[in-house]
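Entry 14. Ran structure prediction on the chain below.
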Amino acid sequence: MSPPDHILVVDDDPEIRRLLAQQLERQGLRVSTAAQDREFWAVLAQSPVDLVVLDVMLPGTDGVALLQALRRGPYAAVPVIMLTALADDVDRVIGLEMGADDYVPKPFTPRELLARIRAVLRRARMLPPGQAAQRLRYAHFGDWTLDLAERSLVHAGGTVTPLNGAEFGLLAFLLDHAQQVVTRDQLLVQLAGRDAEVFDRSIDLRVSRLRKRLGDDVREPGYVKTVRHEGYVLAREVLWSADARRRTPA
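Output, structure tokens:
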């Protein structure tokens, strides 16, 4: 039986650290916490860490500077999820450009963060040996590429379509579970972290809007298919890469 994944939560708010540690440990993860840069480096030096949850706003050395230092050192391959205030788009883009694997805006639910942790760990383990320090910023599927940093869809013809938070969350979740059936309940959990008013019937509407973004045929969609009485499936092969030019076959 493999040991549990070790997650390092870095946040200066003691209540957030306590809550996240409690919730993640209940899901079978091992959790360490740090309030600032000195504790952050101490944990990394003590034992291997599988993923870091890093708040942008920290006293002293902030999260972006810590990420930059991390990517230059011996722990460069450790995946990082940034926690940001909802309006901090500049910090989000800077963080992702510097090598963050994902970001979660505050406020968020522990379930949403858990979903993102699992998705980032899956992607990190897809990297070939010796390339672990590369960040998987792009998801290529069919004629489309999702840019995680810019949160936009790029068509093979060059058209760029920005996505709002709900659209990005839905598509990213489907891509993380490509060619697997995801239930409405799973989508509710994922989207509820971004929209407190999400409800079961709205899932169908959101999927319909996403299909329009992808140019899916209404009667025979080629990307997001409905599985009767179960949910939905992203029916294309997905290639995660650090290169915007690489694509899977259409």
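Residues 138-241 form a domain with the Arc Repressor Mutant, subunit A fold (CATH 1.10.10.10). Will compare against last week's run tomorrow.
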